[in-house]
């Protein structure tokens, strides 16, 4: 057998030192290429090729089929002046910011609560995780009913005039409904990550702190929060990535309305087929990709150094 | 960070949640603090009560769904969420069954989900094995980073060219949707598997190879069975992601006859928008499989998510 790997190599996976020593003499078993092939093949076919195609189309006036002409950077230039697209970006980024904050605050508090000495802990955890397994579009339909029938009915009987009509029909309030439902459905996964973080804090730390007379709030601020900061970073990055692509829940609740008040970037891109501006929306997609990357890099920059994992 | 990938972790983290007796099962997260012993018996009732009240926000929408589904069409049309069904009837379930052609839609969802689960486990495990065991080879290392890039490409960016491409390749059907589900979780799964694989001692493999086993046999007889805990995690998230997805099937599948359960629920927003009882019965039937799977595999869901996050 020519493929026996040295233990050091396989364990660390980063054999910087013994690469030249052992690597060049051994031959790789051809079966490994076979193992790798399916992953590379479907990835190339389903992501790389479409990405390149899409980018190429962003310089054309294609409508999705038939003939097209090269238009250079015209798509990108007119995007800057397109009120519809600009407002989609403002909505998507604003919505993501608000949702990240709301979801993380609630998820963290729930995780704290679930690690306290409570009764029914397992049952409560089962319930709080439940939304994670429910389809976004379906729960959005359920909440659409609640927002347009139940909530106005309750508000009317209580005499609250401002809520007595559906908030989904109000272009200044509809986004709140989207934040609520998105939070409902994404708090569980965020909460589970915080739970994992809280478990790693040894109990004696709190013991010592309370012997020194630290109050519950001081313990939270000086012990718990610093020790879970790495998990806050993960949750913020994962959350932002998710919310920027928001689609299912918005389609289910408002379908981008009223008007275009809650149209996300993903939705505006998808309109490229029905709207006959395929090339134009591909330019939009390219810009969206760039912005996603920039946001990810900014997040990593800000949080680098603060994330204390091994701690 | 990488220590969480040891083979024992899922079982260890999972044991607390076997969901039968709340008293014993809740110990998972709070075990570190229980060791202090001092107040282990005292229950924190204020927190328990607050959490119980919060859990209503999860339960009430689901209970209202059940309540609405049990009404007759005549009673449900007024959209009153809190009035109890009188008379109680299951007719809306049979009506929803026929309207959505439930058996066919269920078969479509089940097919996509089954292919995704099997594909995600096998393809990413194979790729991870090839990459980890040949890390010193440039091709394999670069392949890893190539696949990882997918984590930064949002689906909306490549969606439209994908729709075109799947159309050309005659994959604008459930099989195409399943392939896309596999591709978009490839990066994350390969990362999980390779982290896990690095913790498997190479000595095990060497002894098998000395006995004359080929790479192919070593993988299937030794490595793949050892990956079972991680495969369970990957499989459950593949199931949930695939079963609940709306965006990809709604964009890719062109023939409405081949549509999945979540996508079909749209009909209650357009054609049958006043048949609340039928709509909610249909929502419940579409949610039920995922909820049932969750209740039986809770410990994997909960430990799996936290593991993935710590990577």
Write the layout of secondary structure elements.
The complex is a heterodimer of chains A (311) and B (311).
Chain A: H1 7-12, H2 19-23, H3 30-57, H4 74-80, H5 83-115, H6 121-129, H7 136-158, H8 174-199, H9 203-211, H10 216-227, H11 229-244, H12 248-253, H13 265-274, H14 278-303
Helix pairs in contact in A: 5-8, 5-11, 7-8, 8-11, 11-14, 13-14
Chain B: H1 9-14, H2 22-25, H3 27-34, H4 45-69, H5 73-76, H6 91-99, H7 102-133, H8 138-148, H9 155-168, H10 174-197, H11 202-210, H12 215-226, H13 228-244, H14 247-252, H15 261-264, H16 267-270, H17 276-310
Helix pairs in contact in B: 4-17, 6-17, 7-8, 7-10, 7-13, 10-13, 11-12, 13-17
Short synopsis of the structure:
Chain B: Residues 1-38 are annotated as: Disordered. The complex is a heterodimer of chains A (311) and B (311). Chain A is an all-alpha fold.
> How many strand units of chain B?
0
Would you tell me the overall average pLDDT of chain A? 84
Helix content of chain A: 55-70%
Which oligomeric state applies? heterodimer
CATH homologous superfamily caption of the domain at 104-273 and 284-310 in chain B: MetI-like
List the uncertain runs of chain A. 1-25, 307-311
The CATH architecture designation of the largest domain in chain A is Orthogonal Bundle
Extract low-pLDDT stretches of chain B. 1-39
Distance between the termini of chain A: 42 Å
CATH class category label of the domain at 104-273 and 284-310 in chain B? Mainly Alpha
> Helix count of chain B, per DSSP?
17
Largest interface: A-B, 119 and 123 residues
